[in-house]
Amino acid sequence: MMTLDQLNAASAADFVALLDGTYEHSPWIAERAAAARPFATLAALKVALARVVREATVDEQLGLIRAHPELAGKAAVAGELTAESTNEQQKAGLTACTPDEFAQLQQLNAAYNARFGFPFILAVRGPRGTGFTRAEIIATFERRLRAHPDVERAECLRQIHRIAEIRLNDKFGVTPSLGQQLWDWAAELARHSDDPEWLTCTYATPAHTAVAEQLMAWMRECGFDDVHRDAVGNVVGVYNGTGSASTEPRLLTGSHYDTVRRAGRFDGRLGILAPMLVVRELHRAGKRLPFGLEVVGFSEEEGQRYAATFLASSALTGAFDPAWLDQTDAAGVPLREAMQSAGLPGTMDAIAALKRDPKRYLGFVEVHIEQGPVLDSLDLPLGIVTSINGSRRYTGEIVGLASHAGTTPMGQRRDAAAGVAELILFCEQRATAVADVVATVGMLEVPSGSINVIPGRCRFSLDLRATTDEARDALDADVRAQLDEICTRRGLSYTLQPTVAANAAPSDSAWQARWEAAVTALGLPIHRLPSGAGHDAMKLHELLPQAMLFVRGGNGGISHNPLESVTVDDAELAVLGLQALLNQLEPGAA
Q: Does residue 81 carry a pLDDT above 70?
């Protein structure tokens, strides 16, 4: 097996020879990466190789893609693949296709080459490393055939990096066992769903309770000293430190285990499973930290069944609103009744008792999938969160006059949909002009619309976010002023109903620095980015200093979607990063 010492000490020519086969027929990548030596970790080597490709010319990138064979293509049939490609295609079962599967793959290969001018690239061993099925490969092929050429070229390069990563693991004899365990746990939890077809786990349903029970069982197996489900359904595990369990300081960590509808497996749950693995490793080593570690699987963050978003973390900060207990879901079931049906007390006395004393805690840290494309586009496995965006959300309606599409002159129309369309474009332009500000109209509806009627009403939503409250409020004021101007000029009226107002949650500087030191210890470059999505950390921010670590998501960083994905290698780095952070802490750290 190869070692980093061997690679770092090799001549430039030997360095290239040692990495032969990592990138298909492309020694220039290793030649350029050699200058970045020494590599402290295998992860550092992987990032350096990917950086060479990212900084290469488009022609060089296309050459790299075209150096790869088609899946189950002519080269495979003729036995002309490299040893590495042969092994990968065999493991994916592509050498055992049925005649129909083989014919379908040939059709897809031809269509893909005709559209993009290069072969379809897929790391057939997948994010788990054990391989996609042929059906999964064909489904991915069909989905990506519809992509934009620029998007698909970038995805091919990312798939090539994943292929290289797996080949490097093989060369170095490395198995990301912690990442594999996390991945397998996430897959097991995904079996519990409100919907038999797509992962959906909403608050206080039987599937939700089953996930909580499974998490508690695993926590006990990992060696937690205390495991329980609290009055709002949070799964709480405590691993005591070296001091007195009743008085020693604790670090709080965790994330949520509920999901959106048609969800992915890692949103929220990754941030519970990673610290569980940290505790398991501590327990196996017979080691205690100089503080307690409290891991919370928050029972609700997504606001899918009830409008009481963050009800789980709000209970810990003392901000649970008693009025929430009377909220009803789409079936008319009050929250109090849903809690009681799930075996929870559903009383304010029990919920109020969950409030944490900030004097007892060092802070709150959260590991979370990025839910965006930034890290994936930069070929970086981990990122440091600088702030969780503040937001304002509205639902609104513009009212004009429904009239005949053929007989009403353009200058005499009061088109409600055109008014909203103008507002959408303004939101896009205004948000684009300021860094780390975003604006979205995610819902758009013309009630009782008809192809030959000018819209008299148009309903819409507004989602305005920024890394600071000042930037958010400035965006909010400008958008509302523009809405008023548009309607006045066009002879329209409007209503605008606020639905959410959340303040920004900047990361605590000391805790952010600890995450940065942890990522540096893994041999990875530091990349800082804001979180556009809301997280439990933004509620704990009201009580404790907090900071977050982001983990790269695959498939362009997509989340809240069944395509959401994390590789076992990135999951491994997330666990190791959390371990590195904990190793920096002393009692009383803040």
A: no
| Closest among 274, 251, 365 to 574, alpha carbons compared | 274
Rounded Cα–Cα distance for residues 176 and 385 (Å): 25
Q: What is the DSSP track for 217-273?
A: HHHHHHT-SEEEE-TT--EEEEE--SS-TTTS-EEEEEEE----TT--S-TTTHHHH
Is residue 460 within 8 A of residue 441, CB to CB? The reply is yes
Of 176, 130, 165, give the one whose Cα is nearest residue 572. Answer: 176
CA angle at 368 for the pair 346 and 278, rounded to the nearest 5°: 90
Which pLDDT score is estimated for 97? 79
**Rounded distance, CA 295 to CA 220, Å?**
12
Rounded to 5°, the CA angle 489-493-494 comes to: 120
Q: Give dist(CA 239, CA 295) in Å, integer.
A: 8
Q: Which of 112, 88, 93, 94 is nearest to 165 (CA)?
A: 88
- Going from the C-alpha of 531 to that of each of 150, 381, 452, 478, 578, the distances in angstroms are 25, 16, 43, 23, 19
Contact 491, 414 (CB under 8 A): yes
The C-alpha atoms of residue 199 and residue 570 are separated, in whole angstroms, by 22
- CA-CA distance, 107 to 105, in Å (whole number)? 5
pTM: 0.91
Instruction: Check if the beta carbon of residue 473 is closer than 8 Å to that of residue 437.
Output: no
Query: CA torsion, points 573, 576, 577, 583, in degrees to nearest 10?
Result: -170
Closest by CA to 456, choosing from 409, 395, 403, is: 403
According to DSSP H, which parts of 67-205 are helical? 74-78, 83-91, 99-116, 134-144, 149-172, 177-189
Token output for 454: 């000018």
Model confidence over 159-169: pLDDT tens digits? Answer: 999 999 999 99
* Rounded mean pLDDT, 371-399: 96
Closest CA to 271 of 72, 503, 535, 73: 535
DSSP strand E in 334-468: where?
A: 361-369, 382-388, 390-399, 403-404, 437-440, 444-445, 453-454, 457-466
Give backbone dihedrals phi and psi of 548, rounded to 5 degrees, phi first.
Answer: -125, 150
Which residues contact residue 43 at a Cβ distance below 8 angstroms, ignoring those fewer than 6 apart?
A: 381, 522, 523, 524, 569, 573
Predicted confidence (pLDDT) per residue in 340-359, tens digit: 999 999 999 999 999 999 99
Q: Which residue is it, tokens 């061997």?
A: 6
Average pLDDT over the chain reads: 95
Residue type, 513: A
- Give the per-residue pLDDT at 532: 87
In three-state secondary structure terms, 531 is strand
Between the CA of residue 553 and those of 159, 323, 568, what are the distances in Å? 13, 37, 11
**568-583 vs 509-521: helix axis angle to the nearest 10?**
120
Please say whether the beta carbons of 202 and 258 come within 8 A: yes
pLDDT at 501 over 90: no
Contact assessment for residue 249 and residue 588, using Cβ atoms and an 8 Å cutoff: yes
Domains located in the chain, CATH noted: 4-172 (1.10.3330.10), 180-386+510-583 (3.40.630.10), 391-502 (3.30.70.360)
